[in-house]
Specification:
about 325 residues; alpha/beta; 3 domains; about 10% strand
């Protein structure tokens, strides 16, 4: 059966492919793959995937059109703030992404990523520049200080990221005695159940017997403090099966039973988790592009960072 598509439909399909590549950040050569072409042939019989040059031309046109819209949006705004984020590619090349934040005339918060082409690439007037938000690394703090010394950026304030500052505070707290000993003991305990088939089998049997939800333990990632909260939460959930397995000679040798946390450490783990839970939520809220962070800070300090009577001596 022969299918005939008019030019309008073909153009819409091509635009859809271009959007797919741009929005999902896919490589252009994806359209040259045999599997991709087979999929398109099944979905849209009669449509031929354009050549790479055609796709590239369409992407360039879409980029120019989007850039024009971004420039117009920034031009119509009254004030613009910036956030910066450092990241490293798979080739270990360092990049800095700059995002512009402003409120439209319709009172909608807009967040637009600007290209890394130099700070004046978008020709944002100095009178509209308000603040540059950055993390606490020494190079970014120095960069903001140098920027403020330049005449055209003199009125722009460098602001340290509240979310990153909160994370640094939590990391520092987790390194304090006796919290750090409980943290290390919890990691060693979880790692024990990750290293062998026999160690992994024990909890499954105990979970069934004790009617505890059959979840696996999670080992945290040192560079992500919130993963420690996830590990601790799962470990406390599985406390009974874990303790039972460690005391069962069928699964645990005498020289491995020391891995179980003592009562004080289990209690401290609960205290740590009670503190970390709201911090994770707060960090996520502070990190969202569509939230205004500054109004949250007063509430954060008053309600979540203040010491209360019920806090244990260690969490205080």
């Amino acid at each position: 059966m022969t299918y005939h598509l008019n030019k309008k439909i073909k153009r819409e399909i091509t635009d859809g492919i271009v959007d797919f590549i741009a929005l999902d950040m896919r490589p252009i050569n994806l359209t040259e793959g045999v599997g991709f072409k087979m999929m398109i042939k099944i979905l849209v019989p009669g449509y031929t995937v354009p050549k790479r040059e055609t796709i590239m031309h369409a992407l360039t046109a879409k980029y120019d059109n989007t850039k024009e819209k971004v420039l117009e949006s920034i031009k119509n705004s009254q004030a613009v703030s910036f956030t910066t984020d450092m990241w490293t590619s798979l080739r270990m090349e360092s990049y800095m992404t700059v995002t512009a934040h402003f409120i439209t005339e319709a009172w909608k918060l807009q967040c637009l990523v600007l290209p890394t082409l130099g700070r004046d690439a978008y020709e944002i007037p100095g009178c509209k520049r308000v603040a540059v938000v950055h993390d606490n690394t020494a190079n970014m703090v120095l960069c903001a200080d140098i920027l403020e010394q330049e005449e055209e950026w003199a009125d722009v304030k460098g602001v340290r990221c509240a979310g990153h500052t909160l994370q640094l505070c939590i990391n520092t707290a987790l390194r304090q005695d006796p919290i750090c000993r409980t943290v290390a003991a919890a990691r060693h305990l979880v790692a024990h159940f990750k290293k062998g088939a026999k160690a992994r089998k024990g909890p499954k049997e105990e979970q069934k017997q004790q009617k505890v939800i059959e979840h696996l333990l999670i080992l945290d990632i040192s560079t992500r403090w919130n993963s420690f909260q996830t590990m601790l939460e799962r470990l406390l959930e599985q406390r009974l099966p874990v303790t039972a397995v460690l005391s069962d000679p069928n699964y645990t040798g005498k020289n491995e039973r020391y891995r179980d946390l003592n009562t004080a450490q289990w209690n401290m783990a609960e205290d740590i988790l009670n503190v970390l839970k709201p911090m994770v939520t707060l960090t996520e809220l502070l990190s969202k592009e569509d939230n205004a962070s500054i109004p949250m800070l007063a509430n954060l300090k008053r309600c979540h960072l203040a010491v209360v009577e019920d806090d244990s001596p260690d969490t205080k």
